[in-house]
Each structure stands twice: as structure tokens, then as C-alpha cells.
From TrEMBL:
Keywords, comma-separated and alphabetical: Manganese, Metal-binding, NAD, Oxidoreductase
SMART domains cross-referenced by the UniProt entry: Iso_dh (SM01329)
Co-factor requirement: Mn(2+); Mg(2+)
Keyword Nucleotide-binding: no
Recorded family membership: Belongs to the isocitrate and isopropylmalate dehydrogenases family.
Entry-linked Pfam families: Iso_dh
EC code(s) of this entry: 1.1.1.83
Domain Isopropylmalate dehydrogenase-like: 12-357
Catalytic activity as recorded in UniProt: (R)-malate + NAD(+) = pyruvate + CO2 + NADH
Manganese recorded as keyword: yes
Identification of the protein by name: D-malate dehydrogenase (decarboxylating)
Length: 362
């Protein structure tokens, strides 16, 4: 007699906590994900590879990650990342040496940053109730102002009249793929898209972006469109947030707008994100939007919600959509019950929020 036994699906995930509170929030995320796997009663599990890259690694090796680092990660199904940046390493060195090296090396050209208003979390927006608000910032994640082109002369020699250049690069292919991605996302939501540039002042690259946006829009007649300058969009985030659904912008503008959005939702600590390689040739990377927060690092005070929301986005990406939704609901229920860290007006520690989320999983 042959006996058939269904095998558990094991997902190989690389965890890179990196700096400061990155350690604590990745730990929280792994605890919750492993709890979900246990609840699945053998249907799936996670096989973790944890890497010690970051600013401490830099102190020992003079670089944020090994030269052949990407080779160690490329076969993972996803990367779960914490935060980068520490006072001992110049910020541009740590950012380019780790986070951007992974994003750009793995062609994670679409960065999704939902702006989610959670129950029980007070928003600084002057509204009686902000629970109806929810929009998504789609960040172009491979070029634009982060192309990395430029240079300095007489660097480190004050008084020599130093000049530095920093060029933004906008390609038709780069603009079109992120704009189409955003339109496709809008079709799964409320079918409204806002394209953000500063094309009155940035008269080459961002005018190309606007032209591509108008051309692509013709393929999506069912989606309402607008083109807004970034300064006006910043005001709109505050004055008319109910008009927003999908907001697509260049690398720098979207980074700034998503921080503003998450602050309006209550705290940067709540914001989650997915750096996607939509073609799935390389692993995608999931991380909270916030940085390493050296002022509170190592004290168990940081908000794990941004990292837990990113874990939910990762579950969705792995094909575990129901589990991702389960986690999102558990996060919302935890907040509704007022189990909140100090950045959102509560007194709970990181581990208390994490345990509450686990308790509220279905
Ligand atoms: N988890 C996100 C993170 O570590 N961010 C650090 C940072 O400085 N990011 C700037 C950027 O990516 O533009």
C-alpha cells in the first residue's frame, strides 16, 4: 500500500535586521511569522537565513555587506529588512552600501508604501474620524534622483570653492514601468491616480515623466487621473486626503511624501513597504519605512507595526494572501484595543504589541 503525505511548503527568507531598531522590529516580525506558520499546522514554514550586515559589520570589515553579498541572498524567496543608518557611519555610505545596493542590485524598481489609518491611533489631521482614509504611495525605486550620478571636486578642502553635482536620471522605460504598475494597482482599488512631479522647475526628466504619464493614461480610460506638483501635493495630503487613492512619484519625491503620509496616519513607526522586482527574477524586499532610530534603539520601545505590516505584504507576495490579511486584521485589532507604543500615545513595549498581534491572529 502506498502512503501519500502532503509536504509542508518551506519559504526561504533572508532576514537583514541591520541597524538600531531594525534588530528589534525584525525580531518581532520573525516571531509573528513563525507563530503564523505554527498555526498553519504544517501547511507552511519559514527557513530563515539571518545576515549580520550593517554598521557594525562596517566597523569590522570597512563595508556594509560583503562584496559577493547579493550572491548569498539571490536564491531567497524574499528579504525581510530592518533599517539602515548609525551615527558611526556617514548616512550616504550606509544607505548606498546596503539598502540601495540591494534595491538596485535586485532591480526592485517598484516600492509600494501604503498609508494606512489604523483604528485607535490618533491622526494629527483635524478630522473627527480619519478611519475612511487610505492611500498608497508608489515610489519609483531604481533611478530618478537616486541614480547616483555626480561628483565633487576639492572634496574635504574647505575654502577652495568646491562644486558638487548630482544628476537625476529619468528613462522612458523606467517611467513607463512604474506608471503602468501604479495604474494597474489603481484598477484594484478606487481607480484614481495622482502623478507627482516638479516638472515646472525640473524641465527635462520630470517633463518626460509627465509625457509618459499622459500617454499611458490613454490605455486606462477607466482610471481618473491628475498631475500635481509635489509642493501642491504636500498641501493636499493635509487638506484633502480623502481625494487620494494611488499616488505615483519619483524616488525622492515619493520618499518624502510617504514619510508625510505616515506621520499624518499617526507615526512613521506604522508605515510598511514592499520593494518589488515585479518580474520575480530577483528576490523582493520588505521593510518598515522608518530608519534605525538610534535615540530609542535597544530599549524595547520601538513600534513594530511598520515591520509587521511589511511582513503581511511579504506573505501576500509569497502567495499567502489569506495569512497576510489575517495578520493585517490582527494588527488593526491590537491598535483598536489601545495596545500602542509611545510614538502613538501608548505605554506598551515592542514585545507587548508583538504578543498582542499574535494573540489576535485567527
Ligand atoms: N527601513 C528603511 C530604512 O532603513 N531607511 C533608511 C533611509 O535612510 N532611507 C532613505 C531612503 O531609502 O531613501
Amino acid at each position: 500500500r502506498t502512503e501519500t503525505r502532503s509536504e509542508a511548503r518551506t519559504y526561504t527568507i533572508t532576514a537583514i535586521p541591520a541597524d538600531g531598531v531594525g534588530q528589534e522590529v525584525v525580531d518581532a516580525g520573525r516571531t509573528v511569522l513563525d507563530a503564523l506558520a505554527r498555526e498553519s499546522r504544517g501547511a507552511f514554514s519559514f527557513s530563515w537565513q539571518e545576515l549580520d550586515w550593517g554598521s557594525e559589520y562596517y566597523a569590522k570589515h570597512g563595508r556594509m555587506m560583503p562584496e559577493d553579498g547579493p550572491d548569498l541572498v539571490k536564491d531567497s524567496e524574499a528579504i525581510y529588512f530592518g533599517a539602515v543608518g548609525w551615527p558611526s557611519v556617514p548616512d550616504h555610505v550606509s544607505l548606498w552600501g546596503l539598502r540601495l545596493r540591494l534595491c538596485q542590485g535586485f532591480d526592485q524598481w517598484a516600492n509600494i508604501r501604503p498609508v494606512t489609518f489604523l483604528p485607535g491611533v490618533e491622526s494629527p489631521l483635524r478630522r473627527a474620524d480619519s478611519s475612511d482614509l487610505d492611500w498608497v504611495v508608489v515610489r519609483e525605486n531604481s533611478e530618478g534622483e537616486y541614480a547616483g550620478f555626480g561628483g565633487r571636486n576639492f572634496a574635504g578642502r574647505p575654502g577652495q570653492g568646491e562644486v558638487a553635482t548630482q544628476s537625476a536620471v529619468f528613462t522612458e522605460v523606467g517611467c513607463e514601468r512604474i506608471i503602468r504598475f501604479a495604474f494597474d494597482l489603481a484598477r484594484t482599488r478606487r481607480r484614481k491616480i495622482s502623478s507627482v512631479t516638479k516638472s515646472n522647475a525640473q524641465q527635462y526628466g520630470m517633463v518626460l515623466w509627465d509625457d509618459v504619464f499622459q500617454r499611458v493614461a490613454r490605455d486606462y480610460p477607466d482610471v481618473e487621473t491628475e498631475s500635481v506638483l509635489v509642493d501642491a501635493m504636500s498641501a493636499k495630503f493635509i487638506l484633502h486626503p480623502e481625494d487620494l487613492d494611488v499616488v505615483v512619484a519619483s524616488n525622492l519625491n515619493a520618499d518624502i511624501l510617504s514619510d508625510l503620509g505616515s506621520a499624518l496616519a499617526g507615526s512613521l513607526g506604522l508605515a510598511s513597504s514592499a520593494n518589488l522586482n515585479p518580474e520575480r527574477r530577483f528576490p523582493s524586499m520588505f521593510e518598515p519605512v522608518h530608519g534605525s532610530a538610534p535615540d530609542i534603539a535597544g530599549r524595547g520601545l520601538c513600534n513594530p507595526i511598520g515591520a509587521l505590516g511589511s511582513a503581511a505584504l511579504m506573505l501576500d507576495h509569497l502567495g499567502l494572501a489569506a495569512e497576510g490579511e489575517n495578520l493585517q486584521q490582527a494588527i488593526a485589532e491590537t491598535c483598536r484595543r489601545g495596545i500602542l507604543t509611545h510614538d502613538v500615545g501608548g505605554t506598551a513595549m515592542t514585545r507587548e504589541v508583538t504578543s498582542a498581534v499574535i494573540d489576535h491572529l485567527q
